[in-house]
Design goal:
The structure is a single chain. The chain is mainly alpha-helical. The protein has one domain. It contains seven helices and two strands, in the order H-H-H-H-E-H-H-E-H. The chain has a two-stranded parallel ribbon with strand order 1-2. The relative contact order is 0.13.
Length: about 130
């Protein structure tokens, strides 16, 4: 179920094929594995406190994981932008976007302004 759920979210949110079902023993995608590891570390932080984890070196691992996930998300956004799609008004972008990130990249308001990259990346991070 974990592979099925993460595959659906990857396709819907990021337009990414995670290749979880290419073979019986297909490994988890790096993005899914890193997010899962980060959730595990966050659980330890909430249980033990940040002081213990800092001593054990886990706080550095959390920072590294967050940076790695950010890199993977930026790569996914770049891949959607590289598809050569045109900007569209918000309503049309909602109907024609291939995924949520595609919508965030293509949608423009009535003045032709797009969502700034800062907010777009933060929104993608929340997905």
């Amino acid at each position: 179920m974990f592979k099925a759920g993460s595959t659906a979210i990857g396709k819907l949110a990021l337009g990414m094929e995670l290749h979880h079902f290419d073979s019986i023993d297909a490994p988890l995608h790096d993005l899914v594995r890193t997010v899962a590891h980060n959730l595990e570390l966050n659980k330890k932080v909430s249980t033990m406190g940040i002081g213990i984890l800092t001593y054990m070196g886990s706080s550095k691992t959390i920072e590294d994981n967050i940076a790695h996930v950010q890199e993977l998300l930026e790569e996914a956004i770049k891949n959607v932008k590289g598809a050569g799609t045109e900007d569209l008004p918000i309503q049309d972008a909602a109907l024609k976007a291939s995924c949520i990130v595609d919508y965030l990249v293509r949608a423009t308001d009535e003045k032709g302004n797009k969502l700034s990259e800062k907010y777009r990346n933060n929104a993608a991070w929340l997905l």
